[in-house]
Amino acid sequence: MLNSIAVMTSGGDSPGMNAAARAVVRTALYEGVTVWGIHDGYHGLLDGDIYKMESKDVGDIIQRGGTFLGTARSKRWRTPEGRKLGYKNLVDRGIEGLCVIGGDGSLRGASLLSQETGIPIVGLPGTIDNDVWGSDYTIGCDTAANTIIDAINKLRDTASAHRRVIVLETMGRNSGWLALVAGISGGAEYILVPEEEYDLHAICEDMQEAYKKGKRYILVVVAEGAGNGQEIADYIAKETGLDTRASVLGHIQRGGSPTVIDRVRASQLGEQAALALISGLSNIVFGFKEGHVVSIDLHDSVNNKKQLDPDYIHIAKVLF
Ligand code: F6P
């Protein structure tokens, strides 16, 4: 049974991180356990930017995007010396366990800390990319997908008005999940993801045929890992002669008030993470499988690559 734990957010922020951290803090306090917040991810852990939290510190944040704790990507954390210093900063304060909310890179950093020092670590998957192995879901992916849908709806209006091809580039790093789900639910004609090969020349021929048959406009959603939106739009314009534009959504996808799904799931995950840490469990990530909270081995999670759901890939092809 641990008596003192800490929580931090790390890597790219995602909507719902606040709800998760709030749940960790309030669950720990409910269990009578001291809880600390670490500012700015591993940067703050290295700099000792760590403070004791009370219930009111996590008031008025469940509805906010971003992360009230701050976040960062830390080069220093990638060195064993850095992680040793971070560990010392925890031990000096009597902190016995750490909850890290972040994407695969952040969870990898947490896994190394645990291997090197033995300190109990519980991870939560916090990233819009939905690319954490072992979980169907990551905190923030639902809000980001909804933000993209909103953009697609708007792009459809203007694409239709001008009979244009519009290429929308989404985030997702090496994962096509965001592009795929947003493309399916936004009714995109073509969805390009890094996990699937595509033939842009053949797509261009298809487009020309479709326009000949009276199609008014075409929407292409491309995951950033599958190509550059502007370059793909330039290629399409050159090959087809169709009026084509690119739109890169960028960091707008990372912000905004979290959806109900992200708030509820982040709260469930945060509660489970705190309870697990307090009971002395370590080296696990909590995620969702088929709608239920599951625990995943941290080492397995960071050492495996998540695949896209083949059913999604299939319907994207059938429904276009
Ligand atoms: O991992 C989340 C993510 O938003 C990716 O989709 C994107 O590739 C990357 O972070 C952008 O990172 P940065 O915050 O450095 O711009």
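^ 6-O-phosphono-beta-D-fructofuranose complex. The mean pLDDT is 97. The CA atoms of residues 97 and 119 lie 6 Å apart.
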